[in-house]
Amino acid sequence: MFKIGIDVGGTFTDFVVTNEGEPPRYFKTPSTPHDPSEGVMAGLEDAAQAYDLSIHEFLDTTELVIHGSTVATNTLVERKGAKVGLITTDGFGDLLEMREGLKEDRYNLRMTPVEPLVPRYLRMGIPERVRADGSVFTPLDERALDRELEYLRQEGVEALAVCFLFSYLNPTHEALVYEKIRDKFPDLYTSLSHEVIPQIKEFDRLSTTVINSYVGPVFGRYLQHLKDRFAPYQRFGEVLIMQSNGGVAPIDDSSKMGVRAILSGPAGGVSAAAYHGQLLGESKVISFDMGGTSTDISLIEDGVPHLAHEKFEGGWKIAVPMIDIHTMGAGGGSIASVGPGGILHVGPQSSGADPGPACYDKGGEDATVTDANLMLGYLDPNNFLGGKAKLNKDLAVKALEERVSKPLGMKTVEAAYGVSRVVATTMAEGIRLMSVHRGVDHREFAILAFGGAAGLHAGQVARELRVDKVHLPAAGPVLSAYGMLCTDLKYDFSRSHPASLDGIDLQTVRSILIGLESQGREKLRAQGISEDDIEVQRSADMRYLDQVYEVNIAVPDPSLEDGAFLSEWSGNFHQRYQELFSYHQQDQEVRLVTLRVTMVGRLSRISQPQGTKS
Fold first, then answer.
1. What single string gives the DSSP state of each residue in 121-163?
2. How far is CA 385 from CA 28, 29, 68, 444, 474, in A?
3. Sequence-separated (6 or more) residues with CB below 8 Å from residue 150
4. How many CB atoms lie within 10 A of CB 380?
5. What is the distance of C-alpha 398 from the center of its chain?
6. Hey, what domains does the chain have and what are their CATH numbers?
7. Are 395 and 382 in contact (CB under 8 A)?
8. Does 614 score more than 50 pLDDT?
9. How far is 593 from 454, CA to CA, in rounded Å?
10. How many Å apart are CA 149 and CA 142, to the nearest integer?
């Protein structure tokens, strides 16, 4: 039986196919941005032919497909999501626009505020109020709710986001709103904040809930379209969707929580890098994924990728657990241009899959990194894409000459080398910046390079960074798809419980952790995961008294005696704080903010790869 990993990128769609007792086989086909599933089916046709099977025979003997995609990301970044209506506590409709009073780059005076995903005329305030202790101060005004729902219906909203103050403590009012919505608009995509992230910090919860409703309908339609593509194959197995946290989830769960798939594609590559790092005996790895459109960087220590619990994407804050990935607009298709001051720029604009670099001979006229690599002799024009495509060197030279060398007054080959150096420097600076922010020294890491363009630039990047080792996996050009077959089912649960460690009620803490674990076990058992294959990971967001931002640290085994449990817990926090900020305050009060549980259901792994080179 076949297992297939599929990664839909901006330029190419990658496939890794495994069959029992055989080494994995790799395939790559151009992406089809107008309908990504079209490129998926084209690649599956190629794979079927390689196994001398018809597409029906191939898919009827496929037990599992794990799929990663940039559909949710592109929907948010390109602002092509649903028309969303927001229902919130009366008087708090403008919180979405006020944000936290901060910008992503707070020192950039020219940075304009990002346009709200929900315009003001679609933000409805409903009289209701829950106190900070979870008790109801003002009951929900159902008549006002009915009026606003009718107004939103007339405005033609395609999705609703519901976020009331303190609903993570008492979701009764949000549940009542949902009942009304189900009665009036049974097919309307709806996100409830207490289900998306039941935790403190109003803007985080609001922003994440709105994003889920914004991308959810588009992502859900794509996943349904994908299911329809597979429907004719009666013995076809299951489709799992790659999540931003490095795990996978069933297609129905992913449709409901599109916000958790914002980094669906890149997360697969980091998972594969972590797996390869363990096989190579590397405890510290820089995951370096350079594709046609962008480069994704992530840090891995002891086989575990660094995680973030809040991240800005497309100018909006997402507060769900996700692999900490830094994306740069530098890839094989990145466009090289000369600015008014005679400065060479590479990216972030990309030629994409269509028309692509000039050398693709598909109508592209801009000079790109791929054109520079072809000009420098790094690429074989007759063996591109495994021989499935040929590159036109004359067009590459022409584009570089017109767009770069003439404006700079230099030879074309010098211009091509300049493009290569600039893109390498851009990526090296991105790695430096990320490592400094995460409190690590990048020189202690090895680079694991993958993606269609990484092998061409990893050496230059390593020299810039003074990194001693670079690993190039044999599956490098399709490693993100490979990584999807190195993942597990993974569900994240959280609950805020603000308290000082000095006087915390540990029985309450244990009760919360047990409750979150029970939710996860129920979901994993529904997927057929046995108890032996279930792993529990516990963590907490903590901070010193009067601080605003938290540090996520591991929570000890709750079965420990109270004194030992508290001692280890506070010790974990001080140690992690020291690692991140080079100091800690042993005598300062430590506060718990949010408890987290990740439930992992182990899946079988792909066969050990062969041919990794250093």
1. GGEEEES-EE-TTS-EEE---HHHHHHHHHHHHHTT-SEEEEE
2. 7, 8, 21, 34, 15
3. none
4. 11
5. 37
6. 2-76+221-261 (3.30.420.40), 83-210 (no CATH), 265-482 (3.30.420), 488-601 (3.30.1490)
7. no
8. no
9. 40
10. 10
Residue 499 near residue 590, CB atoms below 8 Å = no
pLDDT in tens, 280-321: 999 999 999 988 878 889 999 999 999 999 888 878 899 999
Whether the CB-CB separation of 263 and 592 falls below 8 Å is answered with no
Beta strands in 31-144 (DSSP E): 62-69, 84-89, 123-126, 129-130, 136-138
Eight-class DSSP state of 613: B
**How far is it, in rounded angstroms, from Cα 200 to Cα 122?**
24
Residue 10's nearest CA partner among 89, 68, 57 is 68
Is the backbone of residue 203 left (phi > 0), alpha (psi -120 to 50) or beta? alpha
% pLDDT > 90, the chain: 64
Extract long-range pairs of 531-537: CB within 8 Å, 24+ residues apart.
533/601, 533/602, 534/599, 534/600, 534/601, 534/602, 535/599, 535/600, 535/602, 536/597, 536/598, 536/599, 536/600, 537/597, 537/598, 537/599, 537/600
Q: What is the pLDDT confidence band of residue 613, given thresholds at 50, 70 and 90? A: very low
Name which of 533, 576, 534 is nearest 554 in CA terms. 576
**Strands 136-138 and 129-130, sheet pairing:** antiparallel
- The string of pLDDT tens digits covering residues 530-569 is 999 999 999 999 999 989 889 999 999 999 999 999 999 9
Q: What is the dihedral of CA 531, 534, 535, 537, to 10 degrees?
A: -110
**Maximum CA pair distance of the chain?**
74
pLDDT tens for residues 380-421?
888 887 777 889 999 999 999 999 998 989 999 999 999 999
Locate all alpha helices (DSSP H) within 308-364, ordered by sequence: none
Q: How many Cβ atoms from other residues are within 10 Å of residue 535's Cβ?
A: 12
- Rounded CA gap, 471 and 461, in Å? 13
Sign of CA dihedral 165, 166, 168, 172: negative
DSSP bridge partners of 601: 489, 534
Single-letter amino acid, residue 575: Q
Taking only the tens place, the pLDDT of each residue in 513-527 is 999 999 999 999 998
Report the run of H or E that residue 304 belongs to, with start and end. Answer: strand 304-305
Tens of pLDDT, residues 450-498: 988 888 999 999 999 999 999 999 888 888 899 999 899 999 999 999 9
Average pLDDT over residues 349-362: 84
Average pLDDT of the chain, as a whole number = 90
